[in-house]
Write a structure and sequence with these properties.
single chain; 564 residues; mainly alpha; two-stranded antiparallel ribbon; 22 helices; 4 strands; binds zinc ion
Amino acid sequence: MSRLPRLIRSTVLPTLFLLAAETMTYAQAPADAAREVIFDHEQRIRPLEIAAGRAWWDANVTGADEAFKLKEETENKLDAVLGDRERFAKLKELDQTKLKDPLLARQIHILYLQALPKQVDPDLLKQMVARGNAIEKRFGVFRAKVEGKELPDSEVRKILKQSRDTDQRRAVWEASKQVGREVEQELRTLVELRNKAARELDFADYHAMQLEINEQSQDQVVRLFDDLDKLTRGPFQAAKREIDAHLAEMYKIGVDELQPWHYHDPYFQEAPAIYKTSLDAAYAKADIPELCRKFYAGIGLPIDDVLKRSDLYEKPGKNPHAFCTDIDREGDVRVLANIVPNEYWTGTMLHELGHSVYSSKNIPAKLPYVVRTDAHILATEGVAMMFERFSKSADWLEQMGLSVEDPAAFDEVGEKMRRNKLLIFSRWCQVMLRFEKGLYHDPAQDLNKLWWDLVEQYQLIKRPEGRDAPDYASKIHIVVAPAYYHNYMMGELFACQVNHAIARDVLKTAEAKNASYVGRKDVGKFMKERVFAPGRTLTWNELTKFATGQELNPKAFAADFSAE
Ligand SMILES: [Zn+2]
């Protein structure tokens, strides 16, 4: 392609025509050329990124057609600039030049990876954006319908958590999966488009490409997941036996009669509340945003401004899930949530606000725009999950001034739920990673079967007899955050590893698993200095080593649940 001659020219010219370089822009020193590309990025692309962030926020809060249209238009503009062939050629050339200044080299590499997936045919890109947005919108407005009545997402979760009526559970579970049928065909088309784009860029498929542009490889990630599988299979089987016995008793059925709708979560990605003590009672009267505000202020990472900008409660048309977004990398950080006073939403708020502290709020303003963000999605998910776990601790609640009726029972249950949660989540992530890998590797295969085969193998949940439905397509992450889910699991490993480092270096305790951060401003200091400060100047594994002394590994994770 036309990129090769450019490359040769750039490596030869600076040495041959060094003296004449002042008047020849194409012969400038690589460092100057890099600075120019970065400056241009901050001038042209940064405003578009900010506008896209705002439009995305509005679209999710209102569900309004105009907001979605604006979001799509802004994204298309951004794609057009990032897709600029000449700009990309310059980035590629500079990325292959050994720039002496590591900060310049890092920024160029990040910009190169950002622009790489946009080098496909602009029409194809537009189709992908349009298709993705259309499906996302369907998810946003979808409500499970049971006997003519529409149920918000929180109601679906409540029934699956509380109902003892198997017929009702089944009806609600099936209704919640209906969105899969609604988006199945569009999702399949989107997958084909994504694969076409990946092949244009010489990747085997879209999954392989997504990992590469996120500085990971399929081999590396699958190896890690194979290790995790070995590490978690035995303990998971034991925990699942206990769970199944409880559930069978709860519904007055045999263990072998248990169906997916008996597991309290539409995907069995969360631990069922099988114990007599419910964690929800402690939160029934809690002011969840205020609780979180006090906690984060106490550890020296205040979030008052985030809460002020956030949209926290259910309303029609609004995205029923939760997320955090850093709009401008200058402190405009917001959370979207649909809070109901229970343990789930407390954990979710602690999670989203965990993202919010690992943002331009605490990443030094002196870092250039390009690296003034989290090191990697797995690192920010890790930080979020590290804080999320406190909602299951009676110690935490009591230290935060909330009364727990029976703290010993709460803790025993919380402890078991935490263990179950880690194990269940690790198995669920196995399904997601391997399904998405299979989905993009061979989209023509029987995907309904692939999904349920994996669910049976890794989650040990039997498919309902005769069920042949696109249940994978009801999981919104497959549409809006493709080939991303494995990062949650790697984030969990990161969370455990950072928590162990905090226990060791800050709290000076061997009890990492139950370490409390309440009122410890030195925890916030550690997070700022060892986790947030580098921004994206380091890769995810470099950051892990910088923060904890070791590369990412499952030792801390294993220690947290095998000590039971
Ligand atoms: Zn998250």
